[in-house]
Structures are given as structure tokens and as C-alpha cells.
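Office hours follow-up: a student asked to see two folded examples consecutively, so here they are.
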Amino acid sequence: MEPQFWHERWQQDDIGFHQAEFNKLLQTYWPTLDLHGSGLVFVPLAGKSRDMLWLRQQGHSVLGVELSSLAIDRFFAEAGLDPKVTQRGPFRCSVADGITLLGGDFFDLTAGDVRDVVAVYDRAALIALPPDLRRQYAAHLGKILPAGTQSLLISIDYPAGEITGPPFAVPTAEVHALFDGAFDVTIVDTRDGLAASDHLRRRGVTRMDTTTYLLRRK
């Protein structure tokens, strides 16, 4: 999946994956992470997710990475924030009120960029990627995240062939195959997620399971 695909989605405002409200699974299960304080939270493929504001409200600093500079600019504008913009290596870096968004390619991140991260929140990154990129994504997280980093991962599964992703179906067996090598993986919740997804129902999905995982970098 080429970067131009995502740039066009944002330019056309074709962002059915965006949620206007704070994610309920985040609110329910974030407190189960053993964080011992606030700490820096990493949000990959962040878009303009309002969940970053919720994490900030809990006392966390937030570090996000997002390919689309348009998404980043919209996030800060909609939050009423005026970021300071600089260049940080290959990334356009926008910072305001404890939230840092790096504009650029997730795969350009190094261990140094995330050395202070204590937790990761992934609601829409893994499921946004086709199979080959999912494998690269999981391997890169395993390479750059500090040992002990905890993650809240939300994934979906729906009948094969009903739609062409994104979002892609990533069943539990694949989550384990992707992450078991570098992470301890625990399922904390599985539920019917279709009722809360008008966007996917309209696209023709007839059944969807939403599963929440806790991951810990070994």
C-alpha cells in the first residue's frame, strides 16, 4: 500500500476509520496497564485520533507518528492547539501541550526516537496495513521498543472477502503469529463490534469481532 493512498484519503476526507468520540475500550482497559505513573505513550499511525487527547488528560505525554501532515495539522487545529513545528531528522515535528506528532514514515523510526516510551496504544495501525506490511510493522515495533514496554492493541476480525481493506481483518491467530516472538500477548476482551461501526455495516460487513490485547515487550 503506497503512501499516496493515505494522502489521497486525507485529501478527500475519506476517513471512516476516524472516531469522533474517545474509544470506550481504551477508557475501560488502559487502567489495567501497569504503568506506575504517567510516562510517554506512543501512538503509531496516529491520524487525528482524539484518543491522544484522552491519554493526555490521564497525565501522559504523547508521541505519535503519522504519514499525512494534513492529518497532523487537523488534529492540532481541532484541538485548539498551536504547535511549534521543527524538523527532527526525517520527520516534520509538531509539538503542543505535551503532544508530539512526527510527520513521516513509521518505518523511519529508530530506537532512539522511542527510548522513553512506556506504553503503546494501537487502535487503527495494525488493521490499516495489508499482510506484508503487518509483518514489517510488528517486527519494527519489536526492534525499536524498550524492553518492558506495554501495549494496548485493538484488532478486528470479519468474514473473509466481505470487503477489501483497510481496515483489514486480523484474527487472533495472526496477532499471536506477529507478536509472540518479541512480546507476551494476552487477550483481555472479545466482543461483537459491528453494532458500533456504521461505516463497516454500510460497506457490507455482516459480522465483526473486536478483540483487545495487552502486549508486553520481552
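And the second, which I mentioned at the end of office hours:
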Amino acid sequence: MSTTTTVRITRRATFAAAHVLCRPEWSEARNQEVFGPCSSDHGHNYVVEVTVAGVVDPETGMVANLKDVDRVLRREFIDLVDHKHLNRDVECLSGIVPTAENIAFAAFTKLSPHFAPARLVRLRLTESENNAAEVICE
């Protein structure tokens, strides 16, 4: 393998959280029209996958140690959201509608600076078996 070949690794974690999709300035009818049943409090068992990319270290054989990736993922994101209400309890989601897209983007933004010399290139947030959002930065 070339010393400049980029390799990707992915780590998966889960968390449970509640949220409600609504805009406080909208009427209940408008929120129901746009967000449907999600305009009421409910929860999900989320799955988050982070993919980091970089050059394989010839000494360790790793792009990044998965233990370190897991530690960063938990410290910088999972511990902040697990068993929380995303609308009320999570600072990085304050003032935004906590859709899968917004949660994924907030997680990506929070995690991105912490994997050097590797870099975060993908974050996938699965909200249910039917819904997922991805942030990709290459």
C-alpha cells in the first residue's frame, strides 16, 4: 500500500433520545401539517456511524485507533444526547428543529475537530428503520 493511500474506517454507536418536531412560532395545526405525528413528544433508538479517513500508520497499521474513535464519539456526542430530550437538554441543538438532518449536522460539527491526523469524512444518523441522514465531507 502506498504511503499516500487513504483508508476509511467506521465506528458505530447507539443512543436513545426524545424529541418533538415543531416550530414554536407556528400554530399547532401548521406543525401537525408539516411534521405529522412527529409534532408530538416521542423517542427513537438512534444509530450513529462515523467514518474517518487517513493514511495508515506503518507502525500501528491503523488510520486511527478505534478505541480512540469510540472514546471521542462518546465523549463529544453520545454522552450529551443519550437519554436526553433533544429540544430541551442538548446545547448544540438549541434553537433548531431536531430533525435527523439537523442532529447529523450538529454531531458532525461537534466531532469533526477531534480525529486528527485522520479526518471525519462521513456521519450517518439512523433515526428508524425507514429514516437516516448523512453528512459527507470529502
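Two things to take away from it. The chain is about 25% helix and 35% strand. The longest helix spans residues 66-81.
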